[in-house]
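Anyone? Bumping this.
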Amino acid sequence: MKKLILKSGLYFFLILIFLEGLVRVFHLGKDTPNRFLDEHEVEKWVPNQNGFSVTGNRRQNFSEYKINNSGYNSYREFNPTANKTELALVGDSFIEGFHQNYYNSIGKKIEQQFTDIEVYEYGYAGYDFADQLHLVHSYKEEFNHIDKVILGIKFSNDLTRSKYQVMTGRLALESPLNKLLKKSKLLVYTKSIGLLDPPQKLIYRMRSFLKSKQEPHVISEEETARIQKEKEQQYLANFESLVKLYGFDKERFTLLLDSRITPPLFLEHLETNNFDYLDFAPLFEASKKPTTLIYDRHWNNHGRSLIAKVITDHLQQNKGWK
Amino acid sequence: MLFNSIDFFIFLPIVFVSYWFLFHKKNKIQNTFLLVASYIFYGLWDWRFLFLILASTLVDFFVGQAIHNSDNQSKRKTWLWISVIFNISLLGFFKYYNFFVNSWVDFISILGYDLKSTWTLQIILPVGISFYTFQTMSYSLDIYYKRLSPTKDFIAFATFVSFFPQLVAGPIERASNLLSQITAKRVFNYVQCTEGLKLILWGLFKKVVIADSIAPIVDDIFANYHSYPASTLILGVSLFSFQVYGDFSGYSDIAIGTAKLFGIELMSNFKFPVFSRNVAEYWQRWHVSLSTWFRHYVYIPLGGSRVSKLKSVRNIIIIFLVSGFWHGANWTFIAWGALHAVLYIPVFLMGRNRIYMNNVVAENNWFPSVKEIIQIMITFSLVTFSRVFFRSESISDAFGFIKQCYTNFSYESYHHPLGYRMIDYYILLGIFVWYEFRIRRDERAPFKFKSKYVRFLVYALVILAMLLFYDDNVDRSFIYFQF
């Protein structure tokens, strides 16, 4: 028995080491750049990092990222000046684009449609509207040089806060323990494919078993509609509060949204108050090819091309950019 | 509790260590512990159905003794019928009740009467009921045929019925093999345990890498067969052949391996059926414990092949229809069984049903001959064709599937519904078939390598394959649990 336990333990340990090596050799696990909070309390990636973002098992999606001097994933450095034509895209993981090669981003696609413009992509996974406006506000000098700023907004996710606060939960990912765990590519890979979910679920199951059971509260349709309406009104109030707090240059700033998932209340508000917005829903709806990745809800290459087209058409038709 | 769940990987080491360290002194205590562990194993799925297992155990324990103690043949027969009727009634109610009601309603509607199906019930099929009822019945049958003496040890008998490694999906054991091991003193055996661990690893590979990774493709093709060309449908049903083999033989390997950890040897259930050279050989290699059960308790009592050719053919038809019906309460399984009878009868009439009983393809060669390759391919194609019925939701779906093959007889490349590269699966199956061929002489030794370094490398690659093909979105339950 002792021999069995010792030998099994030894084999287990050796196989773990061997698998760690294989996962590294075939680059199955994703690299995750380090994040930090800058002097303006803006959360971003530590500058000048590069690596590969991997989705799913067997490298279902494999793409290269490059964090520039400003702390964002982009092939170019951000140096806005008064005498150049610049466009800024501000948003969450959709703009950040870790699921695409950094040299094939939406910004790059837009640049290819014009003779001489620079597109700066201020994308960071998890950025909501408060993060975005706080960023623009904190780097006012730089953004004042940028001719056009497009801010991605998803009503149901991005307006849950009325003012910016540091997201401590996200920064907790930079704890020493998490950094140590990230060093094992085998662990990163197994976590990313969901192999570590069952033990976590087991812990939740045991916790809920020990807790007293509560009867599920059934909500009527009317109640659901009322809650939804209240939520929409709250989000709208948050939008107004954020705009008031950090400023919103209606001449230069445009929102990028999907009208299919945006309530009419918000669209009406934007129109009534002269907020410029771009709606990519018609192009996405008309597309015969899929616009998102199969295993992920982020835009695929075709989806990104359509977004670039929406922005390009807007700049050419309404702003006269060439 | 599933063998491929985290619960089992916590449960098994606890039971294993307790079994050999805490409860090893007396056989009776060890068996009691195994019985409790088995009931926990089953009860974690649904404790209410433990009463069914207990009822089946009690009935056959006492029936066995009554048969043995009775000198009167008609009384013996009556006792046997009590066991058979009780177990078949359990199966009949939980598994077939709704099927019979719906079939009756359909039949009446053919005659022009509109009978609303108001008698159907919301019945949960207790996992493993088809397996443990057959196992307990075999005990009474063996005593009736005087092949076995009944045990007086109720704990041992209850452990035999509910032994957790094989409780929910077999192998269906006979008391002469399993009960005798349970009543005997077991001693820890290092070699047996390592063999068990290797079988568990190989079984997990077959389940996770082969069966589960293919499942989304098969599900997609069968769910949308009307929109795919013949090439895709052939791909789908061929992959299903591998899926069901990986799933069930993987389960059996884990069951046999787990039993070995407790010092118990279960019978082999799969002997590389993919390399069968005719349909008769296929049935000597596929789900062996069920085939053996039907041969012993249905086919031979009916006269087997020692009666006239016509009666033998009748017996073959009966055994395949019953076997099909055992799999599930659906006409598709009966059609599947009937189709196998049709495929088996010519082999039987030509006297070729036993010629491959004691040898394996390319027994003493590195490669099979061209003739053998052709035989294997024909057998695989026929068996795979029958799987259209096995996998389809209804008879009309099965015929729709077949019809689509010839009405849309064209080729189109198939894309994985979750976006994976299909080439990965073709390479995987190629390697799997090659490896299975390499180990074809001994289904209980999947990692037989002289060099320990090579063996280590193969272990690591097998685990790597599991990491590469693990899919969190796949339903990980075993196909045969529904039977």
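Late reply, but here is one note on the structure posted above: Chain B has two domains: 6-108+124-185, 191-277+356-482.
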